[in-house]
Design brief:
Layout: H1 24-30, H2 36-41, H3 43-54, H4 65-85, H5 89-103
Helix pairs in contact: 4-5
The structure holds zinc ion.
């Protein structure tokens, strides 16, 4: 996996993973992440690579239908809570309607 040169990398809040200590230069030298936390930490660097390898950064493969529904409901609930907390009631109403529709399936 070839990674972009340091000059091309976006700003990172810290230069090493707080969990395993992997640095940006370690990542660029080895092309390997050290732990699960690294995926979050180095996301700006690895996301373009993941997109190229997997044709996207989100899993879109086979998922049991009930899990897909549960996941979508959880996404909608989180978005609804955010919309309510930011007083975006128009968006909240749309999300509520989507949740209701999903529940009826
Ligand atoms: Zn790590």
């Amino acid at each position: 996996m070839s990674l972009p040169a340091p000059a091309n990398t976006p700003f990172l809040p810290a230069s090493s993973c707080p969990a395993c200590g992997l640095t940006v230069s370690d990542l660029q030298r080895t092309g390997r992440l050290g732990c699960a936390c690294c995926y979050e930490m180095f996301h700006p660097i690895i996301a373009p690579q993941l997109h190229r390898f997997h044709h996207g950064t989100h899993h879109v493969g086979k998922t049991p239908r009930r899990h897909a529904f549960a996941y979508r409901k959880e996404e909608l609930r989180a978005a609804l809570a955010h919309a309510v907390s930011t007083e975006d009631f128009e968006q909240a109403a749309l999300l509520r309607d989507q949740l209701t529709a999903l529940a009826s399936l």
